[in-house]
């Protein structure tokens, strides 16, 4: 039997929930694990990758119990954590990664933002349109007590990406209106890659009416939201074919 410290704790970025967003490295790590922590919907959507493995929802454990369970399971082999998206933005798994230190290994996944940009066929920064992309969360802003921060970021950013929205859209767009013109394009993307996927498009002035009563942010149900919001002209701006030739000459025609 391998000694405990020889086995790794894998933190596997798994994308928005569809197994097609799992990388080959993530697939290989999952194959090694006999025990995997996976929150819904991953036990269902990743069922083919998790056959024969013991599963647990990490959010049914406090930190101490997770530590105890991981150390117990490491005696039998590597332990895996399936991470929604990946570790790049708003991941609650960092304390565990830090805690397990050299025993931990983080495997990049296709983040929700990457999947959303691909779905929309957009890049989020464009010359003369948007020079910066701000990723934030109204929920985190409220938690830190930074009143007016969302409007300030809207005024400064070319493209704004919101995770974990905790506001009715009518309230949210009212705040965004302090930094964006009413006609600024907005896209709301929900459950990317899953059967319940939804994409709503509108503007700062219209998106609340477009989404209507759909509780995609879980404000009524209390369920964690699988939706993100993207605001900015990059959603509709046309790219200039001359830009390709300019970059080709600058970087490749040496």
Annotation keywords:
254 residues, alpha/beta, Cobalt-precorrin-4 Transmethylase, domain 1, Methyltransferase, Cobalt-precorrin-4 Transmethylase, Domain 2, 2 domains, five-stranded mixed sheet, globular
Low-pLDDT stretches:
none
Helix content: 25-40%
Name the assembly state: single chain
Largest sheet: 5 strands, parallel
Question: What's the Cα radius of gyration?
Answer: 21 Å
DSSP summary, beta strand count: 10
Query: Based on the structure given, which CATH architecture of the largest domain is correct?
Result: 2-Layer Sandwich
CATH-defined superfamily of the largest domain:
Tetrapyrrole methylase, C-terminal domain
Overall pLDDT level = 89
Helix and strand composition category: alpha/beta
- Output the number of helix runs: 10
Q: For the largest beta sheet, what order do the strands appear in spatially?
A: 3-2-4-1-5
The CATH topology of the largest domain is given as Methyltransferase, Cobalt-precorrin-4 Transmethylase, Domain 2
Compute the separation of the termini in Å.
57 Å
Elements, N to C (H/E): EHEHEHEHEHEHHEHEEHEH
The level-1 CATH class of the largest domain: Alpha Beta
Strand residue percentage: 15-25%
